[in-house]
Amino acid sequence: MSQLKLTIATTDYDHFRDFRLGLVQAEGVEHTWLNLGHHECFARFTANREFDVSELSCAKFIAQVSRPDADIIGLPVVCSRLFRFSSFYVNRKSGIRDVQDLRGKRIGSPEWAHSAAVYMRGWLHNEMGVRLTDVHWYQAGANAPGRDEKVEIDLPRGVTLTRVAHRSLSDMLADHEIDCAIIARPPNCYLQGHPDVVRLFPEFLAMEEEYYARTKVWPIMHIIAMKRSIVERHPWAARNLYNAFLESKRRAIERILDPAVSRYPVPWLAAYARRMRELFGGDLFPYGIEENRPTWEQVAVYTYQQGIARRLLAPEEMFPAGIMTKVVI
Fold first, then answer.
1. Residues of 10-42 as b/e, b for ≥16 C-beta within 10 angstroms?
2. Domain 4-81+219-318 identical in fold to domain 85-215
3. Which burial class, exposed, middle or buried, applies to 280 when counting CB atoms under 10 A from its CB (0-12, 13-18, 19+)?
4. Across-strand partners of 181?
5. Partners of residue 53 on adjacent β-strands
6. Do the bridges between strand 29-35 and strand 4-10 make them parallel or antiparallel, or are there none, so unpaired?
7. pLDDT per residue as tens, the chain (329 positions)
8. How many C-beta atoms lie closer than 10 Å to residue 137's C-beta?
């Protein structure tokens, strides 16, 4: 049988390395792998479906897979996942000392369908009582002007969003044109030591550990998406790809946990990774549906509430039917 030829586009992740280099094979698949910046993956796959399989923002994925005529489907493979309480940056002049002070303020994010902001807006709205309609939202490029929304959105009634094309969130925050930015990477003004720009939650690590212990939600930023037509023509391909991603990840975790060899230039990394493995119930970086159900369910609710998803999806609807079928011998 001839091999199914697929193009795969992702950022350079260690947990994909062995698959990308051919040390792990997806049965029946011959791949051409492109290492691109994740924003380039998102833009090119969303606009033109240039790749067969692509890294995609979780929020942008749900925006597209929830359409009635969705032409993509997901693999329950996590590219990137991060807690985001560290992502709130405020200007001291706004007098914001705790979450409740965000009510009535001007808050910016790079896009409305920006996964980091989706999780944190959802947390504000659902857990902290700072409703979507309590804030004046802004959208602009993070550190440079000109960033556009990549997917269609339908803002909830009463939500105010101002798009700014000629300014960056970093400059707007530094100049006190907005009060707060929810942003994945620290804005330049913060990195450059602007005296008025600080993290709202400097003790974010303790917050994130408590949050996970209470909710079992570990926010997923980017996942793997693929053209639905491939699954329709080759139903076996999705599971074979998933198996290869899973084995590649297993090997990466094995490297991290190796106590005898310092493969990465980070002191005590193996000891820290073993402690994190215990904290996360035995799997440092779980893939799969059931393994991540609280997170899939939460992001489905949040994207629907925020006008990104067309409808409320069950986790199983995001992925090919039977993708998690296990063979018992």
1. bbebebbbbbbeeebbbeebebebbebebeebb
2. yes
3. middle
4. 89, 108
5. 8, 226
6. parallel
7. 689 999 999 999 999 999 999 999 999 999 999 999 999 999 999 999 999 999 999 999 999 999 999 999 999 999 999 999 999 999 999 999 999 999 999 999 999 999 999 999 999 999 999 999 999 999 999 999 999 999 999 999 999 999 999 999 999 999 999 999 999 999 999 999 999 999 999 999 999 999 999 999 999 999 999 999 999 999 999 999 999 999 999 999 999 999 888 889 999 999 999 999 998 889 999 999 999 999 999 999 999 999 999 999 999 999 999 999 876 55
8. 22
Complete edge-to-edge strand list for the sheet that includes strand 29-35? 29-35, 4-10, 53-57, 220-227, 72-81
4-81+219-318 fold: D-Maltodextrin-Binding Protein; domain 2 (3.40.190)
Rounding to the nearest 10 degrees, give the CA dihedral for residues 175, 177, 180, 186.
-40
Q: What is the CA angle 116-151-102, rounded to 5?
A: 35
User: pTM for this one?
Assistant: 0.95
Q: Which CATH number fits domain 85-215: 3.30.420.40, 3.40.190.10, 3.30.565.10, 3.40.1170.60?
A: 3.40.190.10
Pairing type for strands 220-227 and 53-57 reads antiparallel
Give the start-to-end residue ranges of the domains of the chain. Answer: 4-81+219-318, 85-215
**Identity (one letter) of the amino acid at 192?**
Q
CA separation for the pair 315, 38 (Å, rounded): 23
